[in-house]
Specification:
The protein is of the alpha+beta class and 630 residues long. It has 27 helices and 19 strands.
Length: 630
């Protein structure tokens, strides 16, 4: 993996390579091979990697590129042959991208495909560009004051410079305690004055001016006019490409195999394209639930052979996974600790075996199916009969006919309400804001947050803002609803969690379903290729028939077993901490209801074997994180 960093003076003073070296030292787990470069007196840049940095750093005519990640397509035709000649070593990848940028400038991002973050210094224009791919699979953070702007792949790199002035962002603490506000926007962090470059955007710094430019907003006006057979074949080919370009070093790459169709599809495709066994890592229920359908699906995939499979049961997790204190010490975002219930133990296993990259099934649900409220959008676009028919089909598919009358009543009520308020945008806006407030009030009630802290951080306003961020303009078609879901901040927030957790183990996390080519293809196909007679992910199921057992591609729902793993990790913590320390209480007193916390802790401490309290675990994680970072 790779880390990039830099410092640009805004007042004409010379920038120090030593400062950039400190940025890299703060994220040394990304690699110990380093190179520092000063293409201008006011600019110093640096890169670190655990491999050769040739493919990630290139300088030409005093312009420089630092590349974290990989480019998989979308380069200008005049440069594609050059790029292809460099495969599979990709030794010229940075050079090719810099040449493309010098030819097309920021317009190259309109078509660029890959998992990347890069920094480019344009000497002719004296301009620094920081860019991230459409879904933010690779991070860039930055700090700016009147004298300079500093950037790095991780917050901990920035914090390694003692003169960076920051403090705790209390609004993000409120977001964490409420959980559902994680994806309120694409730029905030838990540190004041430190920000993320938004996914699907680039930042330009020129003449002391800093500007953010979103570049990825997929079209909703183009439709693929293909029949079923051609659509399935095109999907299968695009998906295979998405897996293949992220699976170029099988011996150093693993796949998280959960038993769901998304991860199984990645494993099935990888088995079909390499001769060596595919490395897989899976959580299984073990003795906790011998009949667990997820564990059964994992076993079924493993029975196909050609896998180097590793399984982990809840009883074994404490031997592999880091403790809560040791893990939160590694991360800059406490939301990432939620992955202790799943990927983190598997990342630890992959690291122990010397792997460098891990693939997973994030977010196959969003890409290959439809939004949860798709019946309403279908009714708006195609008429109430279409919406009702899909509601009935879904109930039949999920065998939930007993709930169908209530679902139909809610559907008709919402349809009537939409009809009444559609004539007045101000009324619609007020209606949506009240929806956000109602959701926020329920979440406050069901969280450990202190009421006075909720008021201080204007939580209800933040819920209203998030509600509007998810659908800034109310979509009138199902395709626009899917587009807004894909560009909503919470998708990026989830991907960033996986990236940070994997990076803390020296691994790169990759998500074939978030390949831009695949995402944009799925947006162009008719809606009934994504949900067909109530069955979600229809086109994925059809495309995977050649590589998966029928029991896998036909599965309709599967239980998540992550709660058993966080239960074991929480139980180990409570054994060592049967009651909150005075320091813990002091750390949390501004943020949570202390009496309620004591009661929850007392109940769990008296019987740690039965401890399974999400509100308690979130408070514990926050306390440990704050104590180690502030």
């Amino acid at each position: 993996m790779t880390g990039i960093a830099g410092l640009l003076s805004l007042n004409g003073q010379e920038s120090s390579k030593e400062n950039v070296g400190a940025l890299l030292q703060g994220m040394s787990h990304r690699g110990t091979i380093q190179e520092l470069i000063a293409p201008a007196a006011t600019l110093a840049l640096g890169i670190c990697s655990n491999q050769s940095i040739t493919r990630s750093l290139h300088a030409a005519q005093q312009s420089v590129i630092l590349l974290d990640g990989a480019i998989h397509g979308g380069l200008p035709e005049s440069l594609q042959n050059c790029n292809e000649r460099s495969k599979p070593s990709t030794s010229n990848e940075a050079r090719t991208l810099l040449e493309a940028f010098r030819e097309g400038r920021h317009r190259i991002l309109d078509d660029l495909v890959g998992d990347f973050a890069f920094a480019i210094w344009d000497h002719d224009r004296q301009e620094l560009t920081l860019a991230r791919d459409a879904f933010g699979t690779r991070p860039i953070f930055f700090y700016k004051d009147r004298k300079r702007i500093v950037f790095a792949s991780e917050v901990k790199g920035l914090l390694n410079l003692p003169w960076i002035s920051t403090g705790l962002n209390r609004e993000r603490v409120a977001d964490y305690l409420l959980g559902s506000l994680e994806g309120i926007n694409k730029h905030a962090t838990f540190h004041e004055n430190i920000y993320r470059v938004p996914a699907g955007s680039y930042l330009t710094i020129c003449n002391r001016s800093v500007a953010t430019h979103p570049y990825w907003k997929p079209s909703t006006d183009v439709t693929e006019h293909l029949d079923d057979t051609d659509s399935i074949a095109t999907f299968a080919s695009t998906f295979r490409t998405a897996v293949e370009c992220r699976y170029q070093a099988p011996a150093q790459t693993g796949i998280l195999l959960s038993g769901g169709i998304d991860s199984c599809s990645i494993v099935g495709s990888a088995r079909d394209m390499v001769s060596s066994p595919v490395n897989t890592f899976s959580l299984i229920s073990g003795a906790h639930d011998p009949d667990c359908d997820e564990s059964h699906s994992v076993a079924l995939m493993q029975s196909m052979g050609h896998l180097n499979a590793r399984n982990l049961s809840p009883d074994e997790v404490s031997k592999v996974a880091p403790t809560i204190p040791s893990f939160v010490a590694r991360i800059d975002n406490p939301f990432t600790a939620s992955l202790l219930a799943g990927p983190v133990p598997l990342y630890a296993m992959a690291q122990a075996e010397g792997l460098e990259a891990v693939l997973d099934g994030v977010d196959g649900d969003v890409v290959t199916s439809l939004t949860g409220n798709h019946h309403w959008f279908l009714a708006n676009e195609f008429g109430i009969k279409t919406g009702l028919r899909e509601l009935v089909n879904e109930a039949a598919y999920y065998e939930s006919n007993a709930e169908l009358p209530k679902a139909i009543t809610r559907f008709l009520f919402r349809r009537l309400a939409n009809g009444l308020i559609s004539r007045s945008n101000p009324i619609r806006s007020l209606f949506r804001r009240r929806q956000g407030s109602r959701t926020g009030q329920n979440d406050i009630t069901n969280s450990p947050i202190k009421n006075s802290f909720a008021k201080e951080t204007h939580v209800l306003d933040r819920f209203r803002q998030q509600h509007e961020n998810e659908h800034p303009n109310y979509p009138d078609t199902i395709r626009k609803a899917c587009q807004q879901t894909l560009t909503a901040p919470y998708i990026v927030a989830a991907i960033e969690r996986y990236e940070e957790a994997a990076a803390s183990f020296g691994l790169t996390a990759s998500h074939p379903f978030m390949d831009r080519r695949l995402v944009e293809f799925c947006l162009r196909i008719p809606w009934n290729f994504r949900i067909h007679h109530g069955q979600p992910k229809w086109i994925l199921r059809q495309a995977m028939k050649p590589v998966l057992p029928k029991e896998i591609y036909a599965q309709y729902k599967i239980a998540n077993i992550g709660h058993w793993f966080i239960h074991e990790i929480l139980r180990d913590y409570l054994r060592q901490n049967p009651a909150p320390s005075s320091r813990t209480l002091e750390t949390l007193e501004d943020f949570v209801e202390i009496d309620e916390l004591k009661q929850r802790w007392r109940t769990a401490g008296e019987n740690p074997e039965e401890a399974n309290d999400d509100l308690l675990s979130s408070s514990i994680i926050l306390s440990e994180w704050l104590q180690q970072h502030f």
